[in-house]
């Protein structure tokens, strides 16, 4: 089921993102830019099971590469240095970040053809992305380390929408 995440996604709508950034301690100038930009999210998987997630905009581009279930060092778009673990649980891509004694969890799931992103713990944001293209040239999810159970649907408040 991970293959459903692979592709290029465009930010469609966002709710409560400023409050989330404020809770993280992001300064006003960066928060204003963060609320204006509409980044593309590009997700690919190589033949070795390494996932690449690239958030690309005219303001800033960030990229992380990881294997599911393995901790890695991440520098976030707001310049936090976190220890991060990505897992696939019940059809959701779960990203757990820890830094300076704090923790946040980002859940991504495909619902009605949209990539929904829910940010919790530090603040609650729901993001929705629309797929720009079903391009899977970045890789496949045939690697044994990438598997998934049945998808679970859930409705949560607040949002950021990404669309195909």
From TrEMBL:
Spell out the Pfam families in the cross-references. Answer: Lipocalin (PF00061)
Q: Which family does it belong to?
A: Belongs to the calycin superfamily. Fatty-acid binding protein (FABP) family.
Organism from which the protein derives: Periophthalmus magnuspinnatus
Family matches, as PANTHER family: FATTY ACID BINDING PROTEIN
Q: Region (Disordered): which ranges?
A: 133-164
Q: Which residues form the Cytosolic fatty-acid binding proteins domain?
A: 7-24
- PROSITE patterns found in the cross-reference section: FABP
Superkingdom of the organism of origin: Eukaryota
Give the protein's function. Answer: Cytosolic CRABPs may regulate the access of retinoic acid to the nuclear retinoic acid receptors.
The keyword Transport appears for this protein: yes
Single GO MF descriptor = retinal binding
Entry-linked Gene3D superfamilies: 2.40.128.20
Name listed for the protein in its UniProt record: Cellular retinoic acid-binding protein 1
Key word Transport present: yes
Q: Cite the entry's keywords alphabetically.
A: Retinol-binding, Transport, Vitamin A
Coiled coil start-end: none
Q: What is the lineage of its organism?
A: Eukaryota, Metazoa, Chordata, Craniata, Vertebrata
